[in-house]
Amino acid sequence: MNGSLVVVDDVAVAFADLVLNRLEAAEGGQFSVAFSGGSTARDCYEALADSGDSVDWSSVTGWWGDERCVPLDDPDSNYRLVREALLSRVHAFGALHPMDSAEPDAADRYDRLLRDAPPIDIVHLGLGPDGHTASLFPESEALTAPEGRLAVYNTDPLGTNPHRRITFTFETIRMCRTAIVTVAGAAKREALHRVLDGDPSAPASHIDGRDVIWLVDADAMGS
Ligand code: 6PG
After folding, report:
1. How far, in Å, CA of 94 to CA of 96, rounded?
2. How remote is the CA of residue 129 from the centroid of ligand 1, in Å?
3. Confidence class of residue 74 from pLDDT cuts 50, 70 and 90?
4. Quick one: pLDDT at residue 54?
5. Cβ(37) – ligand 1 distance below 6 Å
6. Distance (Å, rounded) from C-alpha 213 to C-alpha 28?
């Protein structure tokens, strides 16, 4: 596992505190976050909305680290998840870059957007029970995306995770200033320990970058 690991009581609250601290340190300057999907992420963004009412969100640019290839108002959309949990509850968010799969060649478009943008300050990542992160699934093509590719289409060859996806590659994750990985609940214990043991077949083992912080709760960490 690359980076530092912190066992916390409440992953969502710890995530919100960390993000707000980093936002405060930016002193109102431009700041960018790449959002994740999943239920842990939803809890994190709700906590962020709860505690961030004094934040000037207009200086924050929102990206997505992965998305399902569904309409942006689909119940399975990560864009909709973030809109419901955070964007609809705070004032005047900054620029938003949803991964809109309705666009032709959406992955290529996103790849170009990322290439033309400054490094993202925080990329938020989850951990799936199968060891995936973002939409980088075990044995999937995106794990070996061509060097230089920042966003690609991907699917789960094992069929565990629904929908065709668009996802950051590991290269994009490495380029972000900070990666925060949130892991909560006993259902993630096996996957987390595969990562801690450096199991290369768990895609999340390959999360790397300048500053990687794992926020995990006691249930996920186990005894
Ligand atoms: C997605 C997410 C995915 C998620 C993990 C954890 O689009 O599904 O980006 O990588 O973060 O599967 O999800 P849970 O928090 O729901 O377990």
Report:
1. 6
2. 9
3. very high
4. 80
5. yes
6. 23
